[in-house]
Amino acid sequence: MNMPRVFFYVQHLLGIGHIARASRIASALVRDGFDVTVVTGGLPVPGFPGEGIRTVALPPVVASNAGFSGLADGNGVAADEAFLSRRRDLLLSAFRDRAPDVVIIEAFPFGRRQMRFELLPLLNAIKEAHPRPKLFSSVRDILQENRKPGRDEETVALVRNHFDGVLVHGDPNFARLEDTFPLTSEIASKIHYTGMVAAARSAAPEETFDVIASAGGGAVGLELLGAANAAAAMLPANLRWLLISGPNLPEDDFAGLVNARPANVTLARFRKDFPSLLRGARVSISQAGYNTVGDLLQTDCRAILIPFVAGGETEQTVRAERLKALGLADILPEAGLTPEIVADAVAMALATPRAALVPLDLEGAEKTAAIIRSMTG
């Protein structure tokens, strides 16, 4: 029996959250017996998409600013029409070569409008294919708000005209799509909640730290790490700290942290065992990205969240406020963050027991595979 072929498009522009979530889903699809090809459009990230997954790496583009309003190539040069046309042609060629039974597009059409130059042609190619593959949008539970007039209506039209399903990677008891996408009712028949795509429940950590400060992909978050680094010197020296910079923190910035770190601070660029490390930690300091929060929800580690708000971003603030309401996190503002503020928050977190874990569905990767399996026959 032939394995159904999945063509999974994911474009990360700034952090690594999108590629990390897509990789977890792709791995679950492989375990379920699908032949998966992940098409990546961002800078390479070590360890992703993962073992057993075919990959097509398009010439990378990144966000040219924190507001995601422009695209640059991997060297930071503005992406011109010739570059983007070449990417589009490579994507369409890969689609034709793989002749998939299922196509998954991460974020679009709810996000990633910058990629319309290649995704709208891909939608047309899917529509014209014989046989036509099933098409799914893979989207997180909380969307960016304050979209421009007409954007939501455009999204609805694209979903109705092209997509067989919208895979919402969340637990509706925590967040529902309509909370941040007002026109959800118009596409209600296409929506499938999968639960949160969290990492597989990890074993006990091989080493433990009292406080872990992490900056996701590291393209932003230097202020968070710098404040945590200095805060460690203000609190008892017997507290063990781990700072994880992310692979995208510039080398000079990483070296600056190394040179300034107190003796009780360990620095790392990336830790594959991050979910396990959180299980052994007492306090986590991080942004409020989807994947980090999913990892935190599997632990009793007290969370201090510093939502990313540059460029008018709202998604992390919404997620952080919901966790705070559940008694699972404290929130610090990104603007004006100082070592003193971080030290005070850590001291308070160490003295405050966390609320009981909320029983949220964290099996989103496996349930995504099951939903696709049920709809592809």
What order do the helices and strands come in, and which of them pair?
Elements: E1 5-10, H1 17-31, E2 35-40, E3 54-57, E4 61-63, E5 71-73, H2 81-98, E6 102-106, H3 116-128, E7 134-140, H4 151-162, E8 165-169, E9 191-193, E10 211-214, H5 222-232, E11 241-244, H6 251-260, E12 265-268, H7 274-280, E13 283-286, H8 290-296, E14 302-305, H9 315-325, E15 329-331, H10 339-350, H11 364-376
Parallel strand pairs: 1-2, 1-6, 2-3, 6-7, 7-8, 8-9, 10-11, 10-13, 11-12, 13-14, 14-15
Antiparallel strand pairs: 4-5
Nearest-integer average pLDDT:
92
CATH homology superfamily of the largest domain: Glycogen Phosphorylase B
Q: What is the name of the CATH class of the largest domain?
A: Alpha Beta
Question: In percent, how helical is the residue content?
Answer: 25-40%
Largest sheet composition: 7 strands, parallel
Structural class: alpha/beta
Residue stretches low in confidence (pLDDT < 50, at least 5 long) are none
Under CATH, the topology of the largest domain can be stated as: Rossmann fold
One letter per element, helices H and strands E, the order comes to EHEEEEHEHEHEEEHEHEHEHEHEHH
What's the shape?
A: globular
> How many strand units?
15
Task: Write up what this structure looks like.
By secondary structure, the protein is an alpha/beta fold. The chain folds into 2 domains: 5-197 and 362-376, 3-Layer(aba) Sandwich (Rossmann fold); 211-350, Rossmann fold (3-Layer(aba) Sandwich), CATH 3.40.50. 34% of the residues lie in helices and 17% in strands. It has 11 helices and 15 strands. The protein has helices spanning 17-31, 81-98, 116-128, 151-162, 222-232, 251-260, 274-280, 290-296, 315-325, 339-350, 364-376; strands spanning 5-10, 35-40, 54-57, 61-63, 71-73, 102-106, 134-140, 165-169, 191-193, 211-214, 241-244, 265-268, 283-286, 302-305, 329-331. The strands form 3 sheets. A 7-stranded parallel sheet has the order 3-2-1-6-7-8-9, with helices on both faces. Strands 12-11-10-13-14-15 form a 6-stranded parallel sheet. α1 (17-31) links the parallel β1 and β2 (35-40). α1 (17-31) packs across α11. The longest helix is centred in the N-terminal third of the chain and has 18 residues, at 81-98. The chain is globular. The two termini are 13 Å apart. 45% of the residues are buried. The mean pLDDT is 92.
